[in-house]
Specification:
Blueprint: H1 4-8, E1 13-14, E2 44-53, E3 60-69, H2 70-78, H3 82-100, H4 111-117, E4 133-141, E5 144-145, E6 152-155, H5 156-164, H6 168-181, H7 186-190
Bound molecules: zinc ion.
Length: 202
């Protein structure tokens, strides 16, 4: 009988270049919060990136991106208000869970599969080339994409829907967090101007 876990334990897909640090063109080296090494330690972590069309050049550029280890992500989400956590939980159970929990048959097996998955909004199905702003997120273990959780893409409309689920108190908490840890070059700071984008952390 085939051992189910044999299939799951293969090393998987190396970090797709789309998830590389845009400044270094290398995989993210450390958790942006606790500075734990990510690749060498085999840590579990997630990467989020937001792309937005540059109004001057017309090119889609990474506006904001970070890697955060699961320990730190958990601490942040635990700081959310109970109401926000309940809202997020409901939204993801209803809208997202089926889309990102990969049944074995639909698990991406190559970087090409990943790009295909990220070529349209995971929630509305809208193609990426029709979006001026979108976000991608993926879960990783060390140097590999964790394909048990499918990477997903969300267009700006769906990103707004998620922000609307969060209480003002939670938005304040997240802004404190982003102010403290996610500061960067001026382009990154501009990012927090209206309309604000925040880490989603699912
Ligand atoms: Zn961390």
């Amino acid at each position: 009988m085939e051992n189910y876990y044999d299939h799951r334990s293969h090393r998987g897909i190396e970090i797709p270049r789309l998830f590389y640090d845009s400044l270094t063109h290398q995989p993210f080296a450390r958790c942006q919060v606790c500075e734990k090494q990510l690749v060498e330690t085999g840590a579990s972590y997630m990467i989020e990136k937001v792309f937005r069309k540059n109004v001057v050049s017309g090119r889609i550029e990474s506006q904001y991106e970070f890697a955060i280890c699961f320990d730190c992500a958990l601490k942040l989400t635990q700081s959310y208000s109970e109401e926000s956590r309940a809202n997020l939980q409901r939204f993801f159970n209803e809208e997202v869970a089926d889309l990102i929990n990969s049944p074995a048959a639909e698990r991406p097996e190559s970087e090409r599969d990943v790009l295909e998955l990220l070529s349209h909004c995971s929630i509305t199905g809208k193609p990426v080339n029709e979006l001026d702003e979108y976000q991608i997120a993926g879960h990783f273990n060390g140097g590999y994409l964790n394909t048990d959780m499918r990477p997903f893409m969300m267009g700006a409309g769906s990103m707004d829907d998620v922000s609307d689920l969060l209480s003002n108190k939670t938005l304040d908490e997240i802004d404190d967090f982003t102010g403290k840890f996610l500061t960067g070059p001026p382009e990154f700071r501009d990012f927090f101007k209206s309309p604000k984008r925040r880490p989603i952390l699912v």
